[in-house]
Write a structure and sequence with these properties.
Length: 417
């Protein structure tokens, strides 16, 4: 700001309520002052009501509507300035969190704002994610920082309607404040999960044929494994969320990221394996495979296996001992070996759950042979390919998926006659 000039800053306060407007000078020569013009025409001015010579205007019950802040320098001073307009939460504590922490909360009304603070050193990688955890809330994020940090806000940069703010390495050390609320103009409220990504990156080697048991213990933690593939043939990295404590799948949503020798991303995968397992097949002769909890920064134990050859889907077992979880827009694959003229029956049911099951059968040459969507009278939505005669001898593939953007647990019944 040049000496003798004023700058107008216009903003809209959607919901109304407590509001604090601050004008800072980044610790420079400017002596900031300002006049706030309210939607009803009232004007409130301040010079040194904030920290040092900063200006601050605090309103206990600011009306909703359009505001104009007129910024000026006192006594002919000039320089850079920053402006923040923060709705204050009366009676709500500010919670201190740390890198790698996941926080669950609930927005109960549209005027509610939850505040969280954390301390970052210069170089700390700042990434904040906010998901609605399946509720009706449309998450909205704000991030304020120390003097000199440009405030940030986000609505839908994450998956679906989730919010995501990525600052990158912090250039200013100090206390940062996260604001969690419902997105302006929306009507939904509900549960949320806030994640401040961890700075932790663990690195080690993985050898061909090795299976490593590990654990993602912090939100955003990444475990990196460097590998070599001297033959240059197909190799597969398979990641599952096996929890030895329960001898079953755990809380981690396995996510894989493949980097080449130059550190460039080659591929990612979330659910290409069985259930929510991840797998990547590659012919890279060297590179790095990264293990994490995915975009939602889930945590939990895992197993990572370095296999020779391409990924081979699991073999269907005779009877009903085949179960899997089907996700929206994604398929689960199985195989079986059959002979020409053999009769097979393949059925898929959803335990009377949320999935609308569907199944496809592919021949050894990849040709689509049969499809079943709703094989039984309503209200049943189960699928069945019944007494299908196989045209050739070889390995067949079975695709299980959900119709109409549904997901849920599936049970596959398989019989060969």
């Amino acid at each position: 700001m040049a000496a003798g000039y004023t700058v107008n800053v216009d903003f809209t306060y959607t919901n109304g309520g407590p509001l604090t407007v601050t004008i800072g000078d980044f610790g420079g020569e400017l002596d900031p002052a300002g006049t706030l013009i309210l939607p009803d025409g009232r004007q409130i001015s301040d010079d040194d009501g904030g920290e040092g010579d900063d200006a601050m205007i605090a309103l206990e019950n600011a009306p909703a509507g359009k505001y104009r802040l007129v910024v000026r320098g006192q006594s002919g001073t000039f320089g850079r300035f920053s402006v923040s307009a923060i709705p204050e939460v009366v009676g709500e504590p500010i919670t201190m969190i740390s890198f790698g922490q996941r926080v669950e909360g609930r927005i109960a009304n549209l005027t509610e704002i939850h505040l969280y603070t954390f301390y970052a050193q210069v170089g700390d990688f700042i990434k904040v994610a906010l998901t609605d955890s399946g509720s009706a809330l449309d998450p909205f994020l704000t991030l304020q920082g120390p003097d000199g940090f440009t405030s940030m806000l986000d609505n839908d940069s994450g998956p679906d309607d989730d919010a995501l703010i990525i600052v990158g390495p912090a250039t200013i050390a100090g206390i940062y404040t996260i604001g969690v609320s419902a997105a302006p103009g929306t009507a939904g409220v509900g549960q949320y999960v806030l994640m401040l990504a961890s700075n932790v990156i663990n690195e080690r080697l993985i050898a061909s044929g090795e299976m490593i048991s590990g654990s993602i213990t912090l939100a955003g933690q990444v475990d990196r494994y460097t590998f070599t593939n001297s033959g240059g043939g197909e190799i597969t990295f398979y990641l599952d969320d096996f929890d030895p404590l329960f001898n079953a799948g755990g809380t981690l949503d396995p996510f894989l990221r493949l980097l080449n020798g130059a550190g460039e991303q080659v591929a990612t995968d979330n659910n290409s394996g069985l259930n929510d397992d991840a797998c990547i097949t590659t012919t890279l002769t060297a590179g790095t495979i990264e293990v994490s909890g995915g975009p939602d920064m889930t945590v939990g134990p895992y197993r990572l296996e370095y296999r020779a050859g391409a990924y081979v889907p699991p073999t269907l077992k005779a009877g009903s001992g085949n179960e899997t979880w089907v996700y929206v827009g994604e398929s689960e694959w199985f195989t079986f070996t059959g002979t020409a003229g053999q009769l097979v029956t393949i059925g898929v049911d959803d335990f009377k759950g949320s999935l609308d099951p569907a199944v496809r059968l592919y021949g050894p040459d990849g040709t689509l042979l049969a499809t079943s969507l709703n094989a039984f009278p309503a209200p049943e939505d189960d699928a069945q390919i019944r007494l299908f005669q196989l045209p050739a001898t070889g390995v067949y593939k079975v695709e299980v998926f959900g119709e109409k953007q549904t997901q849920g647990k599936a049970r596959i019944t398989f019989q060969k006659l």
